[in-house]
Amino acid sequence: MYSFIRPLLFCLDPEDAHRLTLNALRLANHEPLNWLLSLYFHAPSKPVEAFGLKFKNPVGLAAGYDKDALAMRGLASLGFGHIEVGTVTSLPQEGNPKPRIFRLVEDEAVINRLGFPSRGTEFVQAKLNPALNPNLLERFLGFGPRKKKAFKRSLPNAVLGVNIGKNKNTSNEEAVLDYLSLLQNFSASADYLTINVSSPNTLGLRQLQARAALESLLKNLHQQRSLEEKRLDKKLPLLVKLAPDLSALELDEALDVILRANMDGVIVTNTTLAREGLKSSHQSESGGLSGAPLKARSEAVLAQTVKFVAGKIPVVSAGGIMHPDDAKRRLDLGAALIQIYTGLIYRGPGFVRAIARSL
Fold first, then answer.
1. How would DSSP label each residue in 130-175?
2. Can you give the residue ranges of every domain in the chain?
């Protein structure tokens, strides 16, 4: 069916098409549509344990698709084992000027320079804790706060990650304050947190991957995480997301810091600034490139990462997963979990089920 819908979506501006599909999935936050989609897109169980969490399958949604946790339960109905919302920033911000997303159809790729558009902590907190903000439909159906609380426990029927990043106007010297605030605010509602220091679309952010800056940031976050775990009586895994454009030495240094800072996992990779071998007329647009052209680089970074961490922490692979065979190869290379985004754009909502069935 998606083969008939995709040409229509691709006639739209990429950001408008994304907004349309996200709003459609918001409808599936509610019954009976959620139940129907879950039935139709049911993915076979392929249990995985990582970071002390249990995943129903290794296929996750990468951060960036649902930045503000608008369609979390609808997305989970597509069969994902985990959903990563965000990137969330402490304060609301618009992101970079439009146009800021470009499809490279000939390359099965996307370039984005969104720059962390986010409605901010308070908005996303309300979405993750719906008892604080019941919608009109649920009021009509009689969901009170007590029932709403029970409803939340089955939401989103997948492990929930929150990807966090600094505001555009926050200097790197003060970035730790943004990350600490976000950690405190989402420690109760998230199953895990991802520290995003690798987006190419926030000026200077990738400098936080350098050894000294990363050591300082992660040391502070680990200390605060320990306090939150005691306060909440729960484990709070912290993951770090890295760029594919680090040199071999830079990657090893970042991984060494991550291990020494007692982080629970690493996600490789974010989008790339590389442009080799592209055919599309949009190839010169600035921003992060995702999709098929990232496949080889992402696999190389995954292999180096798996070798370096040597089983000490789980590795999540993202970037360039466009076919079920790509996903299987990442797992064979040593990834514990995978994440998709651009593959969903080109393959459609049945992609999750297709991957799970192939494993």
1. GGGS--HHHHHHT--HHHHHHHHHTSSSSEEEEEE---TTS-GGGH
2. 2-358
The parts of the chain modelled with pLDDT lower than 50 are 132-155
Residue 148 confidence (pLDDT)? 37
The pairing of strands 101-104 and 82-88 is: unpaired
How much is the pTM?
0.92
What pLDDT is recorded for position 3? 87
Residues 104-125 pLDDT 10s: 999 999 999 999 999 999 999 9
Interstrand relation of 109-112 and 288-291 (parallel, antiparallel or unpaired): antiparallel
DSSP E strand stretches across the chain? 48-50, 53-55, 59-61, 82-88, 101-104, 109-112, 159-164, 192-196, 238-242, 265-268, 288-291, 315-318, 337-340
For residue 143, the model assigns a pLDDT of 44
199 is a catalytic site residue: yes
Catalytic residue among 77, 198, 199, 298: 199
CATH of domain 2-358: 3.20.20.70
Per residue in 55-73, is it b (16+ CB within 10 Å) or e — as a string?
bbbbbbbbbbbbbbbbbbb
3-class DSSP state of 183: helix
226-262: burial string, b at 16+ Cβ within 10 Å, e else: eebeeeeeeebbbbbbbbbbbeeeebebbbebbeebe
